[in-house]
Design a protein that fits this description.
This protein is of the alpha+beta class. The chain is built from 8 helices and 13 strands. β11 (about 300-305) and β12 form a beta hairpin. The longest helix has about 40 residues, at about 5-40.
């Protein structure tokens, strides 16, 4: 067996071990999701239930995106009764940590700021904190396959369950416009709010801690890309790992990288986040790579990528916010290289 085939075979063993270690936790999480999804569906009228439900094998399940689209699958919060909204948000909480839930709802509330900033612009996108859509794919049961998603501008959360076990919780996308709220607009979050502050500052901390020699390896381009790769695609767009390997970092630098990973994993429900981190550990933290592109200070376009054998994180901040402040508009995503949407399960 050649070296590449041996590496692939070793990774498969690692993934099987990680999957076994997470099985019980994923069963508990899936049970909570199943109960919450059914409570949500039971709160809806037959007409609204038909909007909220789709077949599990409907291709629309893979149609994810975070841009301000005119139409989306599912039932939007605006059209739910107060009780249905309560049940929908309870379902959302089964997939996110307390921190992640706060980020998600704050991202929704940023739409009020965008509506205020863009109210005099012709053909501006619809901005509405209640324009976020919940979709149930298949029937939430303890056997068979089903899934659910929550999506709208700058938010896309996707979960898949098979025979009572959660098999996928990706893509997990969080975005923020503005990244830093620069003023009080009379609507939405207050001045100084930063939804994804640790996702940005910890990466800058790691970059600034690198020696000149390390930076030559870590910095892969002088200019940041326009966006994350593979946006809206069912499978992550990924090549060979780029940048500096974690095995080449000092203990202090490795601690910062671990804090960055903890931040991303900490957005989802703790059992899911713990399982993501355990996968990274079993595959070898030394095999994780950190790559940077663009400026090394805020306010100018910058991008980073963290890639290991099991996952890909991308973060980009290049666009101006709706008030015109440069590089104040974040896109960030966690994707599974074992298969988003449970495609390879």
């Amino acid at each position: 067996m050649n070296r590449r085939r041996f590496a692939v075979a070793s990774l498969l063993v690692v993934l099987l071990v990680a999957a076994g270690a997470a099985r019980l936790a994923f069963q508990k999480t899936a049970s909570a999701m199943t109960a919450a999804a059914n409570s949500f569906l039971e709160s809806l009228s037959p007409e609204l239930r038909s909007q909220a439900m789709m077949a599990f094998d409907d291709p629309a399940r893979f149609d994810w995106h975070y841009i301000p689209k005119d139409k989306r699958k599912g039932l939007q919060i605006k059209n739910m009764s107060p009780d249905s909204r309560k049940q929908a948000l309870a379902l959302l909480q089964t997939g996110l940590s307390e921190i992640g839930y706060h980020k998600a709802t704050t991202i929704m509330s940023l739409e009020a700021i965008l509506r205020e900033l863009e109210k005099t612009r012709d053909n501006a996108p619809i901005r509405d904190p209640e324009r976020y859509y919940f979709t149930i794919f298949g029937r939430p049961e303890s056997s068979g396959k089903w899934g659910w998603s929550v999506e709208g501008h700058h938010l896309s959360l996707n979960f898949s369950v098979s025979d009572g076990r959660l098999v996928s919780s990706t893509p997990t996308f969080f975005g923020s416009n503005p990244a830093t709220v620069g003023a009080d607009y009379g609507a939405g979050p207050k001045k100084g709010t930063r939804v994804l502050v640790k996702e940005e500052t910890l990466a800058f901390d790691l970059l600034h801690s690198l020696t000149p020699e390390q930076r030559k390896v870590a910095v892969i381009a002088e200019k940041a890309p326009d966006d994350i790769g593979g946006a809206g695609q069912a499978r992550a767009k990924v090549g060979e790992p780029a940048g500096i390997a974690a095995g080449k970092l000092t203990p202090g630098q490795l601690k910062t990288l671990q804090s960055l990973l903890d931040t991303y994993a900490g957005n989802v429900f703790h059992e899911l986040g713990d399982a993501r981190l355990e996968e990274i550990k079993l595959a070898g933290i030394e095999n994780v790579h950190f790559a940077w592109a663009g400026a090394d200070k805020p306010g100018i376009g910058h991008y980073y990528r963290v890639q290991g054998p099991t996952f890909l994180i991308e973060f980009v901040n290049v666009q101006p916010d709706s008030a015109g402040n440069p590089a104040n508009h974040i896109h960030s995503v966690w994707r599974s290289l074992a298969g988003d949407f449970g495609l390879d399960q």
